[in-house]
């Protein structure tokens, strides 16, 4: 016989608040720790293996250089210029050697192709001067060798191409769109609560910069492992999720932090999940924020995801925007703070089939709130009564006591001092 823990989790065994009012047969299974598809930082947790056609990456050299890490990009940048200088230094040395400029016994009246090029070192220095257009003036080309003129033109053209490609790659790498996405933030937790009498999945997004994101669009996707009726297993099944502003194309005005709301209706993949079943599922909600940077005009994209452990059922985000002296102020220290609210523990389908569940939940919440207020008021009254009684006892202790004196005849004589 299986132990009880493998059938129903202990934290749900005797919790009457989590039992759905509608009889239903929930399915429980052990939660498997699976890898995230999208990390919290927005990086894709995907590994490419067994790629046989590696030459495809060389067909797009610019993108390959931009995608490389900085250390590899700088090494390639330096080696490209160094190799080109050495290559043309060899050409200049061959031109000087063919013309006889390197011969120490040459006639003094014969002019050199390149003045002061007498060794490979001097040819290398002249190659650098030609390609980077330094022109120190110690070495210069003459009219004696048409071959030298051809090499000069060829090196200038190739040097311009190398400068354009490498500097363009460096610029593209420094101005990548994900750099702007570092200041686009998401709440660490997602919440599910009742809004406008409907269960809603909500997250909070914000922009730390004053420069805005133009035409900002938020897209939600649910990624889960599914099996088709034909038995095909889809390990990463992506399901689009509509947000509350779907009519306007999900375009938002990201001036201040906003709460993105997804109404859990019959078209939602979360429609049949109750609180207990959500914790046992292995789905992942991916959030993608896209827009155009106002200052540069470059498109940017910020991503994050929420697994079931990061979805709080029955919570709501606290307000963080206040008006102070005619200016709206945003308190980012409370960006991810939530507060617990009254929320049915059943699924959205059960809530649609029996709306009285929501009414009963709200009534119970109101009664518990009133009881807590009564208890708080009674505790305050008891504390005030205790304080008043203690003050009275202290005052009575400070009062002057009566002293009794005995006369010589033995009769009592009372005197108060």
TrEMBL record:
Start and end residues of each stretch annotated as Disordered:
366-404
Q: Which SUPFAM superfamilies match?
A: E set domains, Voltage-gated potassium channels
> What region holds the Potassium channel inwardly rectifying transmembrane domain?
38-176
| InterPro entries reported for this sequence | Ig_E-set (IPR014756), IRK_C (IPR041647), K_chnl_inward-rec_Kir (IPR016449), K_chnl_inward-rec_Kir6.1 (IPR003278), K_chnl_inward-rec_Kir_cyto (IPR013518), Kir_TM (IPR040445)
Kindly state which keywords UniProt assigns to this record, in alphabetical order.
Answer: Ion channel, Ion transport, Membrane, Phosphoprotein, Potassium, Potassium transport, Transmembrane, Transmembrane helix, Transport, Voltage-gated channel
Membrane-spanning residues where?
74-95, 148-171
Tell me the ranges covered by the Inward rectifier potassium channel C-terminal domain, including all copies.
184-354
Q: What topology does it adopt in the membrane? A: Multi-pass membrane protein
Kindly list the residues the record flags as site (Role in the control of polyamine-mediated channel gating and in the blocking by intracellular magnesium).
163
Subcellular location(s) per record: Membrane
* Catalysed reaction, written as an equation: K(+)(in) = K(+)(out)
Cellular component GO terms, alphabetically?
A: monoatomic ion channel complex; plasma membrane
Q: Which Pfam families does the UniProt record give?
A: IRK, IRK_C
* GO function term, MF aspect, one: ATP-activated inward rectifier potassium channel activity
> Primary place of residence?
membrane
Q: Which family does it belong to?
A: Belongs to the inward rectifier-type potassium channel (TC 1.A.2.1) family.
PANTHER family found in the cross-reference section: ATP-SENSITIVE INWARD RECTIFIER POTASSIUM CHANNEL 8, INWARD RECTIFIER POTASSIUM CHANNEL
Q: What is the protein's given name? A: ATP-sensitive inward rectifier potassium channel 8-like
Source organism of this protein record: Sinocyclocheilus anshuiensis
What gene is behind this protein?
LOC107690420
């Amino acid at each position: 016989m299986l132990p009880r823990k493998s059938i129903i989790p202990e934290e749900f065994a005797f919790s009457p608040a989590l039992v759905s009012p509608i009889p239903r047969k929930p399915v429980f299974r052990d939660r498997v720790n699976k890898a995230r598809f999208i990390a919290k930082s927005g990086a894709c947790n995907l590994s490419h293996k067994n790629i046989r056609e590696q030459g495809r990456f060389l067909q797009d050299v610019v993108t390959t250089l931009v995608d490389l890490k900085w250390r590899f990009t700088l090494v390639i940048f330096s080696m490209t210029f160094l190799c080109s200088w050495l290559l043309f230094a060899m050409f200049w040395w061959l031109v000087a050697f063919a013309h006889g400029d390197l011969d120490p016994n040459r006639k003094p009246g014969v002019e050199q192709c390149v003045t002061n090029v007498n060794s490979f070192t001097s040819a290398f220095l002249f190659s650098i001067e030609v390609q980077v257009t330094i022109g120190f003036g110690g070495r210069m080309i003459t009219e004696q060798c048409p071959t030298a003129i051809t090499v000069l033109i060829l090196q200038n053209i190739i040097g311009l191409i190398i400068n354009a490609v490498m500097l363009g790659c460096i610029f593209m790498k420094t101005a990548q769109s994900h750099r702007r996405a570092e200041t686009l933030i998401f709440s660490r937790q997602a919440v599910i609560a009742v809004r406008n009498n409907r269960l809603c999945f909500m997250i909070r997004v914000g922009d730390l910069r004053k420069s805005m994101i133009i035409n900002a669009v938020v897209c939600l996707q649910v990624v889960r492992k599914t099996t088709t009726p034909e038995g095909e297993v889809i390990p990463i099944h992506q399901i689009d999720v509509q947000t509350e502003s779907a009519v306007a194309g999900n375009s938002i005005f990201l001036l201040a932090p906003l709460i993105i709301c997804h109404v859990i209706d019959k078209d939602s993949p979360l429609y049949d999940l109750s609180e207990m079943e959500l914790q046992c599922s292995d789905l992942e909600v991916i959030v993608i924020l896209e827009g155009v940077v106002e200052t540069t005009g470059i498109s940017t994209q910020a991503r994050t995801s929420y697994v079931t452990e990061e979805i709080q059922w029955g919570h709501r985000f606290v307000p963080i925007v206040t008006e102070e002296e005619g200016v709206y102020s945003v308190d980012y220290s409370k960006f991810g703070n939530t507060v617990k609210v009254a929320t049915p523990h059943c699924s959205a389908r059960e809530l649609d089939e029996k709306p009285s569940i929501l009414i009963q939940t709200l009534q119970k919440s109101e009664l518990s709130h009133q009881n807590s207020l009564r208890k708080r008021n009674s505790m305050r009254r008891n504390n005030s009564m205790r304080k008043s009684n203690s003050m009275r006892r202290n005052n009575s202790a400070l009062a002057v006591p009566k002293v009794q004196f005995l006369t010589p005849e033995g009769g009592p004589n009372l005197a108060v001092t």
